[in-house]
């Protein structure tokens, strides 16, 4: 069973619907024992870093998550859930979970696209991901595939953790992590078939490495 | 590099499409869920549902449609039409829509934009603008005037000023519909689109007037739009979404071609 972490931040149901459609057993939960018993955790989220961290801390989920990751529990962070894995976020000047070194920065207003037009903020829509390092979750995903992004802040993890990048006014890291702990800025649950493939690949990995 | 989006718009009345779409494969004519699935399969980048139902009873049916769509398609979609309160927004978002679109209600009560952005995030809040070309005046310096209630009511509001205001209030996107171009099939109102796109930093969706894929190319180049809304051009089967995107690609536009 995949646990979808409920920490009162935005759209949890879209991840659940996508997993349901793929017939991947899942549960939306904030219960420590359920998280522990799961084969893997998806850390979703739309919203602001500040309020998300407050919710995590007040419920004690922050420490829980760190323990679970240390124990080797597979985890996939999506969008805000990806940003919050880093040390800090410029959004609301928030100290975040600190699982992977790095920070989250805002797209600067003066960035321009390839046509020299000022970029829109948020970065909203479909964009490609260029993989620089092997990532199990992209197995059988077409290299030309694009993914749905919607965000105004972007992750800047330590270089060792960068898996894939995306161009939008600048080249930013859109996929990072290491085997068993992945973070992606885009929404696989809203990225059509390639996104569903990523979720399936994550589930497959979880089943093969189920420590629960 | 960000792709330009092609967004089909479906008008729904009491749970049924008002204009049936072409019969293809197993798509049931007049069924919004089947149509959404078809467009999803054909590579739509997003889908807009516009609820034109007048009755409260019909609105409940729309929520069922939204839930059914959300179970079947895995791209973003938005719902507009008759959204005027936070509760209206919450209901469609909970039913599975990514975004909600407010139009007349935002003009009559601009606070709804800020309240929606605060409650659900700016990325959820699309402001729809219906715009009419008019003489330039003190009240309407740009010569483009916002109208509400489907164009039936003038409110003496300048389109560029309103666009800046909705951005300031926290809208995440503007869907810009030209009443003059709507239904003509002669192309989008490019000057208006460009003026609004240059005025704000949030994405602008061009709407009204699409009759040929070349018009979508114009909307995202000359018009500087992030996306193009299309309706009858695909509903009647002259063009497919796949074909439109291929045309745009050949014209040098970055579009999503793998799905």
What topology emerges from the helices and strands here?
The complex is a heterodimer of chains A (212) and B (259).
Chain A: E1 2-5, H1 13-21, E2 26-29, H2 32-37, E3 40-43, H3 49-58, H4 61-70, E4 75-78, H5 80-83, E5 88-89, E6 94-95, E7 102-106, E8 123-128, E9 130-131, E10 146-151, E11 153-157, E12 162-167, E13 171-178, E14 181-184, H6 192-208
Parallel strand pairs in A: 1-2, 1-3, 3-4, 4-14, 5-7
Antiparallel strand pairs in A: 5-6, 7-11, 8-10, 9-12, 12-13, 13-14
Chain B: E1 5-13, E2 16-17, H1 32-41, E3 47-51, H2 56-72, E4 77-80, H3 86-94, E5 99-102, H4 104-108, H5 111-120, E6 125-133, E7 144-148, E8 153-158, H6 159-169, E9 173-178, H7 190-199, E10 204-207, H8 213-220, E11 227-230, H9 232-235, H10 241-250
Parallel strand pairs in B: 1-3, 1-11, 3-4, 4-5, 5-6, 6-9, 9-10, 10-11
Antiparallel strand pairs in B: 1-2, 6-7, 7-8
Helix pairs in contact in B: 1-2, 8-10
Provide key terms for this protein.
heterodimer, A: alpha/beta, Rossmann fold, 8-stranded mixed beta sheet, 4-stranded mixed beta sheet, 6 helices, B: alpha/beta, TIM Barrel, 8-stranded parallel beta barrel, globular
Brief overview:
The complex is a heterodimer of chains A (212) and B (259). By secondary structure, chain A is α/β, with parallel strands linked by helices.
């Amino acid at each position: 069973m995949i646990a979808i972490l409920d920490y009162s931040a935005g759209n949890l149901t879209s991840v659940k619907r996508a997993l349901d459609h793929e017939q991947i057993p899942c549960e939306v939960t904030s219960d420590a024992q359920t998280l522990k018993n799961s084969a893997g955790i998806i850390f979703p989220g739309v919203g602001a870093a500040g309020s998300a961290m407050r919710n995590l801390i007040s419920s004690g989920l922050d420490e829980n998550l760190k323990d679970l990751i240390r124990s080797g529990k597979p985890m996939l962070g999506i969008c805000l859930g990806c940003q919050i894995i880093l040390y800090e976020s410029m959004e609301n000047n928030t100290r975040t979970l600190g699982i992977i070194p790095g920070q989250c920065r805002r797209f600067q207003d003066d960035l321009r696209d390839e046509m020299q037009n000022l970029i829109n903020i948020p970065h909203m829509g479909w964009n490609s991901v260029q993989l620089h390092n092997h990532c199990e979750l992209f197995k059988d995903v077409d290299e030309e595939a694009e993914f749905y992004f919607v965000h105004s802040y972007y992750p800047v993890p330590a270089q060792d953790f960068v898996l894939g990048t995306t161009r939008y006014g600048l080249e930013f890291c859109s996929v990072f992590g290491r085997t068993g702990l992945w973070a992606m800025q885009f929404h696989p649950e809203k990225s059509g078939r390639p996104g569903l493939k990523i979720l399936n690949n994550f589930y497959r990995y979880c089943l093969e490495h189920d420590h629960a | 590099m960000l792709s330009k989006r092609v967004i089909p718009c479906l008008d729904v009345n009491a749970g049924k499409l008002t204009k049936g779409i072409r019969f293809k494969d197993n798509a049931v004519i007049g069924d919004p869920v089947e149509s959404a699935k078809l467009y999803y399969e054909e590579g739509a980048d997003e889908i807009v549902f516009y609820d034109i139902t007048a009755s409260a009873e019909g609105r409940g049916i729309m929520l069922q449609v939204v839930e059914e769509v959300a179970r079947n398609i895995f791209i973003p979609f938005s719902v507009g039409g008759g959204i005027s309160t936070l509760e209206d927004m919450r209901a469609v978002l909970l039913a599975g829509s990514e975004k909600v679109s407010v139009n007349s209600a935002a003009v009559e009560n601009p606070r709804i934009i800020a309240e929606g952005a605060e409650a659900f995030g700016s990325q959820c809040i699309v402001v729809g603008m219906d715009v009419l070309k008019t003489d330039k005046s003190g009240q309407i310096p740009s010569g483009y005037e916002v109208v509400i209630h489907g164009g039936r009511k003038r409110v003496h509001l300048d389109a560029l000023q309103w666009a800046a205001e909705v951005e300031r209030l926290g809208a995440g996107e503007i869907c810009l519909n030209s009443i003059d171009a709507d239904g003509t099939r002669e192309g989008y109102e490019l000057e208006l689109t460009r003026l609004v796109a240059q005025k704000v930093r949030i994405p602008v969706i061009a709407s009204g007037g699409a009759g040929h894929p070349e018009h979508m190319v114009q909307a995202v180049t000359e018009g500087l739009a992030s996306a193009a809304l299309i309706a009858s051009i695909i509903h009647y089967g002259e063009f497919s979404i796949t074909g439109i995107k291929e045309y745009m690609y050949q014209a040098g536009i970055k579009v999503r071609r793998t799905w």
